[in-house]
Amino acid sequence: MKNCEFIKDFEAFEHDKEPLHPLLVQQFQSSYGYEQSTLKSQVQRYVELTSIFQSWYGESDLIFSRAPGRVDLLGSHTDYHEGYVLTMALDREILIAAGRRDDRRIVLKNCEGRFAAQEFMLGEEIPPGAPGNWANYVKAAAQALVRAYGPDRIRGANLLVDGRPPYGIPPAAGLSSSSALLVAAAKALAALYRIPLDPKQFALFCGKAEWYVGTRGGFMDHASSILSQRETAFFLDCRPVDQNGNTTLSTDTIPLVPEYCVAICNTNVTKEKAASSDYNVRALECQLGMQLLHPHVPQAKFLRDIPNDAPISEWLPEESTFDDLQQSIEPQNLEKLFTHYNVEQSRKLSLLSRCRHVISENSRVLAGRRYLNEGNIEKFGRVMSASYASMRGDFEASCRELDIMIDIAMDFPGTVGARIAGAGWGGCVVALVKAMEAVEFQKQVAERYVQQTDIQADIFLCLPGQGASIIGEDDSCLSHSG
C-alpha cells in the first residue's frame, strides 16, 4: 500500500470514522489481539512511523515488519548445546517500515537519533561495521538472504527502524533486541521480494545469520521471536529434526497462569552481546568440556545428551589451560576451537562448572515445563530461582546489580521466582509476581534498587506477545520506489 493509503486508513480508524481495511484488521488483530484500546494505540504508532518514512524517503509503497523481543523464563545458555528453553515473546518489539528500491542499495535509518543512518550495497560479502554497530544485524540478514537465494532474487530497500519506548525493546538488556532487529529486517526483505519462509526453518536461518556479528550462539532468540503465540509460554527443543527431508524444530506452547504476571526489571547495566568476550569464552568452555566428556558417554554429541546424574566431577577438571588440554585434545583441533571462538590461548578456563550449569539447566527447563502444564506456579518459581543460583555460581554470568535486583525482587511477598534474563553480565531480571500485587512490586523494587545502587531501574509488566509478522503485505507492494 502507498504511504498515503496507510495514513488515510489508520487515521479514519483512529477517529472512529471508518474501520480499517479488512486486510489490515486481520493483520493487526493477529499481531496485537482484539482489544480496541490496544489496536488504537498501535495505529497511532503506525501513523507516526508512516509519516516519518514519507518525510525521509518520499511517497512509495511500503510494508511493516515487526518482531518481538523475548524473555527466557528458563534455559540460559542451553540453546547452542541443542538443549531446551522455555521463553515468552514480549509485547515489545522492533518495527520496520520497508519499501523497495530499484537498485541494490540498502538505505537504513532509525527513529532514534543515537543510531546513525547507514547505507550499504547488497552482496554475498557485506563488510561489517565496528563491533556493536546496530546496522550489523541488518547486514547479517541481508547477506544471509543473498547467499541463500542469490543476488538476482533480492534488490535494494529503504528501511526505517522504530524501537522507541513504550513499544520498543530496551537495547543491551538481555531481551533480544538485536536478534529481533535481525528477524524483522530479514522478514521485511523476504516479504518485499516474495521469498516464502517456513517459520521453523526461518528461525534456524536467522540463528546462523547472526554469526555474522561475531557471536557463535544458537537460534533460541530467533525462534522465540518468530514462533511464539500470545498468552502462552514457548517451549523449544533446540535439536533440529528431519521431517520428510526438511530440517525443522520441535516446539510447544503452554498457557500461562493468568493470576500471575511477568515483571521485567532492567538494571540499566548493559553489556552488548556482540562485544562481549565472556559469551564466546563460555561457549568454548562448554565445547571443550563436551570433548572431554565424550569418551565417558560415547553416544553423546552435545551437553544435552549428558544425564543430569552423570559423575562429571570425576571426568572434568575444575580449571584448565590451553597447554593442559593438549594432553587430551588433538593440538590442531584445539587451536581451531580457540580461533573459532576468538579466545586467547592464555585464558584460564573453567570446564566443570560451565558444563554442570548447562546440564542441570536442561533438567530445570523440562521440570518447569511440567509445572506450568500442571498450573503449579509455586514449584515453577522455585525452579526459576534455582536457575539463577546456577547462573551466578557455576556459569558466573551475574554482576553486582543483577544480584541486588534479584534479592530485592525475592523479598517482595508476591514474588514466586526470579532469575537473570538473557545471557547475563548485565541487563534484566525476570520475576514472576502475583498479578494483584504487580503495581506495588514495580514501586517497591524500583525504590529499593535506586537506594542501593544509585541507578534508576526500569520495571515493566509484560504480556506474552505474538511472534513476528508482516503488516500491509498485499500485491500492491510489488512496485519499485527510488
From TrEMBL:
User: Keywords for this entry?
Assistant: ATP-binding, Carbohydrate metabolism, Galactose metabolism, Kinase, Nucleotide-binding, Transferase
The protein's matches in Gene3D superfamilies, at most eight in alphabetical order, are given as: 3.30.230.10, GHMP kinase, C-terminal domain
Q: What class of enzyme is it?
A: transferase
Start and end residues of each Galactokinase N-terminal domain: 53-99
- Its Gene Ontology biological processes? galactose metabolic process
Q: Organism's domain of life?
A: Bacteria
Which parts of the sequence belong to the GHMP kinase C-terminal domain? Answer: 371-450
Enzyme Commission no = 2.7.1.6
Cellular component annotations (GO), alphabetically ordered: cytosol
Q: Which GO terms describe its molecular function?
A: ATP binding; galactokinase activity
- Give the GHMP kinase N-terminal domain ranges: 136-228
UniProt similarity note: Belongs to the GHMP kinase family. GalK subfamily.
Which protein is depicted? Galactokinase
Q: What is the source species?
A: candidate division KSB3 bacterium
Taxonomic path: Bacteria, candidate division KSB3
